[in-house]
Amino acid sequence: MNKSPLLCLLLLALIGCNGDSTAKPDTDAPKKPKVALIMKSLANEFFSTMADGAEKYQAEHPEEFDLVVNGIKDERDLSRQVALVDEMIAANVDAIVIAPADSKALVPALRRAKKAGVIVVNIDNRLDAAILEAEGVSIPFVGPDNKAGAKTTGSFLAQSLKPGDAVCILEGVRTSFNGQQRFAGFEEAMNDAGAKIVDHQSAEWEMSKANTIAASMLSEHPETKAILAANDSMALGAVAAVKAAGRSGDVLIIGFDNISAVQEAIREGKILATADQHGDQLAVFGIQNALKLLEDPDAKIEDVETPVDLITKESLAK
């Protein structure tokens, strides 16, 4: 029996709807990795500059990765930084790039991250090698040689000192490797110059605390010819203390980080020099290393030394 043309059309339509030609969503598209940047205090211009550099890099490479930026209230808020690591693990990030507030206290949290399958890269402040070994963790470090940078800056200061001149040092957090290394670099430069370190105390990277401690140092040691600060925030605190003591131009000051406020102070002659560890690129170097490890998890873990340069009034004028 002949089928009507209308019935044939209906049959063809049903076959077409149930055939293999149905479009399927593309589930094979590669998933972009999510990278978390965890820094120290964003109130410190150095770390806000670091965040800006990382965000700019991500904006220039949006197809390569997504970025989550985190920071803590101040340099000493270790518990919050540990909590941030745990939060990023829970958020299923693929990699954590961290500038640890403490070289020892963050290691157990980062071990948990690695156990959860998260790639971890250490920037700025090197994690403690003995604690890493005790925890059975290998984490690559991307950052400058802080001791060499501090020694270079200290040696530049030494050109303006005489043997036997009294100097004071404002240290960073003493459990931070970069703080330890900067103190060692300053100490070595002063010893080489024959200068006398009459006092050294930790101001924990903080400007206000540095101001208070520097004022006390100047009062107790009026013979002080220079103050060596392990970061620029503390150097600015020392500037205020020197001014309050009526000794501007008499006490030389150096810092470390090359933040914009210190560049201006160098131009004005309030600070002699600082060290530039290129904060705007430091996180970028760490992110690039993390992406390489995400691409090849079996790649050999290696440290990457980044540049650190002496900044003076002459170099800023170029």
Automatic annotation (TrEMBL):
Q: Cellular location of this protein?
A: Cell envelope
Source taxon at top rank: Bacteria
Domain annotation Periplasmic binding protein: ranges = 35-295
Looking at the Swiss-Prot or TrEMBL record, what is one Pfam family this protein matches? Peripla_BP_4
Q: Name one GO cellular component term.
A: cell envelope
Q: Which GO terms describe its molecular function?
A: carbohydrate binding
Q: For this UniProt entry, what is the primary localization, expressed as one broad class?
A: other
Task: Output the SUPFAM superfamilies linked to this UniProt entry.
Answer: Periplasmic binding protein-like I
Matching entries from PROSITE patterns are given as: PROKAR_LIPOPROTEIN (PS51257)
- Please provide the record's keywords in A-Z order: Signal
Extent of the signal sequence? 1-23
What InterPro entries does its record include?
A: Peripla_BP_I, SBP_2_dom
Similarity section:
Belongs to the bacterial solute-binding protein 2 family.
Name-wise, this protein is: Sugar ABC transporter substrate-binding protein
Taxonomic source organism: Blastopirellula sediminis
The taxonomy runs:
Bacteria, Pseudomonadati, Planctomycetota, Planctomycetia, Pirellulales
